[in-house]
Amino acid sequence: MTTHILGYPRIGAKRELKFALEAYWKGESSEQRLYEVAQHLRQTHWQTQLDAGMDLLPVNDFAYYDQVLNMSTLLGVIPKRFRQTPYTLDVAFRMARGRAPSDDMVNCCAGHADPSSEQASKADYAGAMKKWFDTNYHYIVPELDEDTEFKITDTRLFEEVTEAIQLTGKAKNIKPVLVGPVTYLYLAENKGTAIPKLNRLPALLEVYSQILQRLAEQGIEWVQIDEPILVLDLSDDWQTAFKDAYESLTETPVNILLATYFETLGNNLDLTCHLPVAGLHYDGLRGAHQLKDVIANYPADKVLSLGVVDGRNIWKTDLTDAARQLEPAKTKFGDRLWLAPSCSLLHVPVNLEAEVNLNPELKNYLAFAKQKLAEIKLLADAVDGKANEEALQINRQAIEEKAASTLIHDAKVQARIATLDSIALDRATAYAERTKGQKAKFQLPLFPTTTIGSFPQTQAIRQARRQFKQGELSETHYIAAMQAEIHEVIERQERIGLDVFVHGEPERNDMVEYFGEQLDGYAFTQFGWVQSYGSRCVKPPIIYGDVSRPKAMTVSWSQYAQSQTDKIMKGMLTGAVTMLQWSFVRNDQPRETTCNQIALALRDEVLDLEAAGIEMIQIDEAALREGLPLKQSDWADYLRWAVNSFRLTTSGVKDTTQIHTHMCYSEFNDIIDAVAKMDADVITIETSKSQMKLLDAFVDFDYPNEIGPGVYDIHSPNIPTVEQMVNLIQKAAENIPVERLWVNPDCGLKTRGWSETEPALTHMVDAAKVLRKQF
Ligand code: GLN
Ligand code: ZN
């Protein structure tokens, strides 16, 4: 049986690529050095696959920045503003980064240079960045303009193919990977042109066919063409585009393996099965409930590559079970059944062996990219009737141990989850009523001003946290340092004249990690990095077991902060959905259950904060929208449990305790009713860059509760003027009753410096004062 993978993590086990890129960008190392590191990584990754017994090696899964950007440069889709000079790797970097480096809020507000932000005024702003389907990976959106002309431009693909052939000595073992023409066009955006995207398909296919031709001349037999949009709900014209595209590519002298992943094919099944290509890769995990139909409908004389090892998660595969699932496919396809992970391994960390500090029991339940290669091989041998019984037995043992493990399963948590039905999810009193009590109690002016939570994380703060973690700073000293910091930001807020204060989150490195570290059921790796975009990586925590809260997590900080001021101090928590969304989640129970366990832990925290005298509590749900399933038909169910987890977190408080939530980097049109059901007393959102356009969804819906539309773009070092902010708030006030408007920045300020933050917030407070005179 042929074994292969769709792609390997490119960043390197020790993030070598990240460091090489950043050194190069800073001018600290040469282009030559960057090439050497990159080449070494490619060779290492191919060698790892060879050693693991993979039959086909992917090429062009490597990228200096992003695989979609690879396609853009290969196809000559270079935005006009970068076309003046001949193409070089630096041009690609400029397409991705503009000329200036961007922020580092990797989680959420991904810190990219958005063309609508201040960068738009610069001649060479970076391309927009979007999430790759429902992953946390971001790609550079291809830009099509009036003069876009598809033409092979970047020849790196062919050079890397040569490099791989030199390594293996055999071209037929090399499988170049391309983003498919239809997916590429679908993800591209028109820029100052009205040419319908699909009109460009024939010209685009012309170049794809030249590329395939050239690969064939290099001796290549198989090319993997990724068309993940086949798992989306497609309109007729896009379905037709698939037929046209692959009809036209039948002429080319290579075999095409069409790859889909992340979901079922839904009603694109028939279309996909009839496309004139040599084979299909199908995600047997996320597409599990259509796997039978795929096996039944895919033509028996073609190749079917099945992904039954999870490319999106870090759990060991149950190989015995997987082998059983593959049997019908083996019977039908024989040698034409291929085996691979479900999708590219880009989305998992590189090597579990590096994790020397992980609990050995937990470690025994995990598999990272390298370990997944071994799983593929074991599985292929098992299905081929050459099973390595001993290895399979060890795997079975791990799977059984996990199912019974008390590390994973906590009877107390499960007992509590079983009582969920008895907890009311509604607040005791409806917003329209309870707001009266809140208004009477807080006595805030019109247009109350506040911030989203974090304040600039200075060098000193980061250093203190690091030293504490490494045991170089005692707990007493650490607490004193953080309290001093909190005290200082309170003084600053007093000077600035804000109405509702925050403690500034100096004790938090990351809004998910901070809570995960204090919850049972969460584990952290040392090297479990996953690329988020360019050189940026995240290290998602692992939710391995039933989640509970051994003790209060934020109360002492908030209590201290409140003791330092008469102003209202907002408590600050990360919501359950966001905790889930930015972690690797266990796969042995529904996400809904895991989410509810986190929500219960947060519910206790909320009640503890309230008991400690904190009267406003903000629960951030930055990732609520990101969690939306790829298929529209699954949205309602997701939104139901996501919203309910928020209500479970918050419903226990008194009427006069005010619940805030914050969501950034979000569009609300299609989820506004769900957001309204969350019933937060106040929601703060990111609106400044859209000139309040994002507010329309709230206005059209008649959103009933209070809103703080962001009036200042925290991604930019620019200091907004009073007038700019007055204008924005006035815009909001045209459509939203002023009694329900708050004034705040778009998001937290941790990536900013004080030199911008203090004047910007002062202007914001002045803007609120101007407005109070007008209303
Ligand atoms: N409270 C968090 C902060 O201010 C919110 C961050 C976010 O929404 N991403 O940093
Ligand atoms: Zn935010």
Outline the secondary-structure elements.
Elements: E1 2-3, H1 16-25, H2 31-51, E2 57-59, H3 67-75, H4 89-97, E3 129-131, E4 138-140, E5 143-144, H5 156-168, E6 174-179, H6 181-187, E7 189-190, H7 201-217, E8 222-226, H8 236-249, E9 255-259, H9 269-274, E10 279-283, H10 291-297, E11 303-309, H11 319-333, E12 337-341, H12 360-363, H13 369-383, H14 389-404, H15 411-418, H16 431-442, H17 459-469, H18 475-496, E13 500-501, H19 513-516, E14 520-523, E15 530-533, E16 536-538, E17 542-548, H20 555-563, E18 568-574, H21 576-581, E19 584-585, H22 591-611, E20 616-620, H23 635-650, E21 658-663, H24 672-678, E22 682-685, H25 696-701, E23 706-709, H26 722-735, H27 754-774
Parallel strand pairs: 1-12, 2-6, 5-7, 6-8, 8-9, 9-10, 10-11, 11-12, 13-18, 17-19, 18-20, 20-21, 21-22, 22-23
Antiparallel strand pairs: 3-4, 14-17, 15-16
Helix pairs in contact: 1-2, 7-8, 11-13, 17-18, 22-23, 23-24, 26-27
The chain binds glutamine and zinc ion.
